[in-house]
Amino acid sequence: MKTIAGLVGLTAAALVLSPSVAQAQDSTCYDTAAPLTVEEQRLDDTLVTGGPAVGPALVKLAGFDGRVADFTAKLCRQAVSKQAQQFVEREGDALWKAAVARAQSTKPLAHDAYDDRPLYWARLQLSSALRQWKPRFAFSPADRAKLIQRFDWASRGLSDEKFPLRPGVRKIAVTGFDPFQLSGANVRRANPAGAAALQLDGREIDTPTGKVVLQAAVLPVLWGGFDEGIVEQFYGTALQQKPDAFVTISQGRPGRFDVERWAARWRGGFGDNNDISSYGSVPNAPGWPQPSDEFIETSLPYQKMIDAGTGPFTVNYNLAFCEWVAVGSQQSCRTDQPTPGRVAASGGGGDYLSNESMYRANRLRTGYGATNVLGGHLHTPVLGQPADPAALTDEAFEKQRRDIADQVKALVSVV
Fold first, then answer.
1. Helix (H) or strand (E) holding 302
2. Is residue 383 over pLDDT 90?
3. Of 43, 72, 79, 122, which is the most exposed, with the fewest CB atoms less than 10 Å away?
4. Which residue, 308, 260, 297, 263, is CA-closest to 282?
């Protein structure tokens, strides 16, 4: 795991002063001048001048606004450090479970059950409250960083990761991602990989070869979050329960699914949800096995997934990868095999966090010698946005997200 000092350094790099906060806060309990992250500041973003803030509006549509208000009030009453830690982790777990229950509800809902955005924005409302909270006890920056991490990981499904102890049931661990590229009018974006994770968590699916049970989490689109070891924490916990497969999932290319052949040990520098860039080899995760492979090949049954006849989107096996001929200046991009000794430049999934989720999960799997566990990455089709630039949702947008998430469910069940 990253040290506390390291966590604080990563967090501080993303903090800037915010002129306002998204929810009303008690001035005796909250310091509204305390800096929020770039990601948290987007809670104030609107689609039209004078319109409602998008994040809080989506939280309200899903019925999570009461949960946010309850959290911010109860946080002010925390008087003991250890109890505060237990409170925030319990509330993070409760938020995750509420989002999963809503996503998998069989009852008609006022707002689309497949919408992954309310969880994302509710989490940011609560993390911003934790960042500006003025506790009654001694509380260092390192203490705050650790408290926020505890809440964040719990609200992503990391505290709710337990497979049933039943013989003959296949166990598959999966991760999706938060929405990303949210600047300006794109603040309303969703991520079908995150929507699929909410649909899959805790599910038991009947297949022709028996039952499949799934445990899921949603990863941050943050280099710092990956450096803190969130991927290893989720899949490492899964490995202790002897799973049958890992499937990392993210949003990829328009109009098709891709099963990626190669994961690469390289970050290409693209900015994350805090507008922070990172470039170079994927760092080690202290405390976990660290094989030094430049590329890791999928072991998912890609042909079986292609032949399964899921729809409506086509499923492709993507062979592409790039390696550095001269690091930083010249690449060779091909579809055969990487050259022994060369440094990876990108996998089939590119050089961003989706590629890194596949690399980290499978570096862990191979590092533990879990060769009997299948592992790989599934890229979903790109999800569009509502046709009206001032709308939070519409029928076509909701149908596309539902179609993608349901096909993810079908594809993962045949792994």
1. helix 302-307
2. yes
3. 79
4. 263
